[in-house]
Every structure is written in C-alpha cells, then in structure tokens.
What we know:
The protein is α/β, with parallel strands linked by helices. It has helices spanning 10-15, 24-33, 40-43, 54-59, 126-137, 157-168, 182-185, 192-197, 219-230, 249-261, 285-295; strands at residues 88-92, 95-99, 144-148, 175-180, 204-210, 234-240, 264-270, 306-311, 316-319, 325-326, 335-338, 344-347. Helices cover 27% and strands 18% of the residues.
Amino acid sequence: MTAHTPLRSIDALVAQGLVVPARREALDAVAERYAVSVTPAIAALIDPSDAADPIARQFIPDAAELLTLPQEMADPIGDDVHSPVEGVVHRYPDRALLKLVHACPVYCRFCFRREMVGPGGASLAGEKLDAALAYLASRPEIWEVIMTGGDPFILSARRVREVAKRLAAIPHIKVTRWHTRVPVVDPERITADYARALRVPGKASYIAIHANHPREFTPAALAAIARLADAGHVLLSQSVLLRGVNADIETLAALMRAFVENRVKPYYLHHPDLAPGTSHFRLSLAEGQALVKSLRGHLSGLCQPTYILDIPGGAGKIPVGPSFLSGCEMPGAEAQAEDRFGTQHSYPPA
C-alpha cells in the first residue's frame, strides 16, 4: 500500500493504528454493509488516542451503524421517485441533479446516499450520459444543473471537461454547480488545470465544498480551495450538523469562520437525513435551532449558514432556523423582536 492509497478495509485501518484489533470483528460487519474509504489526508488528521476524535467519527466505521431505526430509510430524500432518467434527479422546477458517479474518495458514516454509493459502481457515461444530457436539454425550465454523485471530483480532468463542454451547449442552462468533498479529503487532486477544467464556458460556475470540522482546513486543503477560487468559481459551503463532530457553538463558529476566511460563503447546514444506521449522529431539531440561533449576532453575517431540513420522502428542503419574531401572526398585532441577548423589543404593525 502506497502513501497515496486510501484505506478501504477494516484490516487496513487496523494496520494504520486507526482501529484497535479488538474492534475488527464488529466493524467487519459494518464494512460488509456500507463502503469504507479513508484517504491519507484524512488518516493523517485522526488522533487514534482520542476516542471521541471528531475526524475519526466522520470516517471510521462504528458498530452503531448496524442499528437501523424504523423511521430510517434507504432513500431518505426521495432521489428515486424524482429520477426521470438514470443519472438525473429533477425535484425542483428550475434545477436538476446530474449524478455523474457512484463512488467517493471517502465514505462519510452519516451519508444520506450510503445505500447507493460505493466502489465498483459505473460512472454515468456513453448512452446513459447522452440520455441524461438529452433530458436536461429537453427541459427549458432547467436553469441550474448540480453535478453530484458520489463525488464528481474523482473524475479525471478530461471527463469533467467533456461534461462541461456538453453543458455549455445547452442555452437555457445558465448556472452550473459541483458538489464535492475532494478539496479537503484529497486536496492534491485539485491542480490548477483541474480547477480550469471545471469551468463551463458561458455559465456561472459554483462549487459547494463539504466540510464539517475546522481541522479539515489543512494547509493542503487551503491551497486546493484557493486554486478553485482563483480559477473563477464562486465557492459555497455544505456542512451537516453532527453530534460529536460540530454540535457545539465553538466548533460550529470556527468552522464557519474557516469557510469565510478562505473565500467560501456558508450556504447550507443540513440536519442529518434519516439514512440507515445514522441515529447516533442526529440531534433534535430544537437542539439544532438553538445552536444556529447562537451564531446570529455573535458572528459576522458572512458566517451564517441556512439550517436546512430535507423533508423525508422527496418533498424537498425547507429552512428550519430559529425565529427571532413572535406575536405578529394576527393582522394588526404588534411584533416582538428578540435581539442577540434575548431581550424582546416591540415593533409596530404596518
């Protein structure tokens, strides 16, 4: 195994000292069900002496994943019911997902697509890619296309250039967005040439970077993110609110500041989806709202993500952030506005 090879088995994790041998048998059962991969960049961040290490919690299998609650589901956000052709998810009128690959460089233990992704899955190519692009071209209401998977950044620069060129030829698509974990988990992949390959000529180009803990912003990750920004992409953040990883105000604030300091605008903070075997990561919505409320007024407005719930079954995303207004539900009623210190202030009706 070379220094650049991901760790893709429990034996490999044991050999690297990231899993104690006594846990091997229990975790083998997890690995039989859900894919495992830890890149060298992530392995180097894990503190094996810390049983509560927030990086390990995201990527190292846990026996708790074998517990599936009745409300958990294989397709928690309803990808399948909104997939008109293979590789496309069209849930909202003006935008669609283009799922280019089924594999990732790492497999997050809380992944909402964990029943669908893993090594060995074929990428969207040939006639299947033709059919997916034909669908996008046939729907003039589609204004934005979001490349996802899996992680589309595991594709070669040649492949992403091909996709970019073909999207550029569809006139009603004005915005392209790539969703990825690669800049923080495998930053060496993001060369200047790769960053240029992602540009879709004539379209606004956005990249949503997924990170959940400030320690993920290593010098190599910062350099990769800078290459994307310098290539002209607008950078957004995606994070998941995770118990034991970032579900405290200090960590969450540091994470959002790390994004902003590196030209990444905080975008979505996701409430964990009801994926099988992920209950140990989930907080209550009330706990999440309290954390997000604490950010307001104590961090720059640039650092404020939108707290999002993806309604199970495919009904779509809704913001579930806390309200700072009360009492204005009735016409003509005076509102009460709560400031960052919790003090109420009256606001007159219109």
